[in-house]
Amino acid sequence: MKDSAVLIIDLINDFHFSEGDLLLNETKRILPNIKRLKQYAKKHSLPIIYVNDHYDTWETDYKKIADKCKSETNQDIIAEGGLPSKEDYFLIKPKLSGFFRTTLPSLLEQLGIKHLIIAGIAGNICVLFTANDAHMRGYTLHVPENCIASNTRIHNEEAIRLMVKVMKAKTDPI
Q1: Looking at residue 38, what is its pLDDT?
Q2: pLDDT in tens, 70-85
Q3: 47 phi and psi angles, rounded to 5 deg
Q4: Which residue among 42, 48, 101, 129 is least enclosed by CB atoms within 10 Å?
Q5: How wide is the angle at C-alpha 161 spanned by C-alphas 103 and 136, nearest 5°?
Q6: Please, what is the end-to-end C-alpha distance for the chain in angstroms?
Q7: What number of other Cβ atoms are within 10 A of residue 85's Cβ?
Q8: According to the model, what pLDDT value does residue 47 have?
């Protein structure tokens, strides 16, 4: 446990893209599970690392990104699961993977992390690519199937199958 960290991917999200409304609904469905995962991490003193798109702000202040993304339809997601607490970490990413051109590898090394618990959206894109990059770097993975969402449940199930088969991820629910 001491060598584990939780990654929360892209919960600060504007959902303004093709099928964004579908992802918004699926995200609302998993939000209680992400909240439980965060409580679990806090109880076990696991670092929580938010890795998020920057929405063309290149801003490292998550509050400014949240302000840009917040709308009537997503404010509950941002307020209930998407914002880090003061002891959490927050990193921006320029592309799909949490590892691509970010300081995540250095942070994980400094924290002595060997195992990642990954949650967030979209399961078949940013979560999948982050899990793939983590696997290539030798991390063991747990991607709780009830803590990731994609635009459709079929896409989510396909991503989960890939993470299990190719990346040897555990997917037990939280």
Answers
A1: 97
A2: 999 999 999 988 899 9
A3: -65, 140
A4: 101
A5: 30
A6: 15
A7: 9
A8: 98
